[in-house]
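The material for today's practical consists of a large collection of protein records. Getting from the letters to the tokens is the skill we practise here. To make this concrete, we reproduce a full record directly below:
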Amino acid sequence: MTVSTALRYHRFGPPAESLTLERTPLPPRAEGRLRVAMMLAPVNPSDLIPITGAYAHRVQPPLVAGYEGVGRVVEAPAAHAHLTGRRVLPLRGDGTWQTYLDCDPALAIPVPDDIPDDLAARAYINPLAAHLMLKAWPARDRHVVLTGAGSACVGLLGQWALQQGACSVTGICRSDSRRSPLEALGIRPVPLADMAAVKAAAATADLAFDAVGGAAGSAILNALPAAGVLVSYGLLSGQPVLPGVQARAKHARFHLRESLGPLAPEAWQALFRDLWPRLRTAHMPDTDVFPLEDWQAALAAYARPGARKPLLAMPS
């Protein structure tokens, strides 16, 4: 009997307390679906925040955690038999922090042979968000400010904004350990603790992408010039952006799930055909791999400032 192992949460709360590793018999494959044996899945803020209950209006436990990862097709319906044995990204369906999942063949993204597993596992949340935001708010000839600098998404936003022709990119970072990596990417670091410098950077910016919210996001929005735009795409502080009475800039919002909702399968597949060439040359953070059974150590590593990106490895 084949057993499926999954990290589930049955209630909202701190992830380290709410997640449980569960083993259950693997049911027959759902009709018309691909069965994917998961290989690697990263630990992202977007995986952990829903577990806390922050999005209780949208998700309800019990659920398997995890939104992205790479696996190999082990069973397929006859119409998709060519995918058997191929690596795919089984996205926009069940949680990825499990050993097996069944997914819609139209939404499974085939992985090119030259893309390594650790890059494929991280090819969805951060790369696609950065790609879509820079399509909606191009950086060419603009001075750009990024909060939450040091994260994978901010690193990609900065790299690709400069490739688009941004005049400059400034990264607001919490830890001094982020300074050298940001400078290596061509991003000017500004410490979050120096709020005067943060406001000065915003005052000369045209475009800001904010993953933090709270005091940092609010300060930037309120300091941006009238023609500026602040795009909120995260809430790492847990607090919203609050425009002051003197705020002049536009405040826009981006949510990956909402952007992808109306996409037809062919448009979904086309996004990744555009994305793979960009990822081949992108600088991505280093990773540390943890067996699924050591998920608590992976979450602890995620919480350490300056730590490498944790990846969960599924047992074969």
Q: What stands out?
A: The mean pLDDT is 94. Residues 265-281 form the longest helix (17 residues). The CA atoms of residues 137 and 207 lie 8 Å apart. The first strand starts at residue 3 and ends at 9.
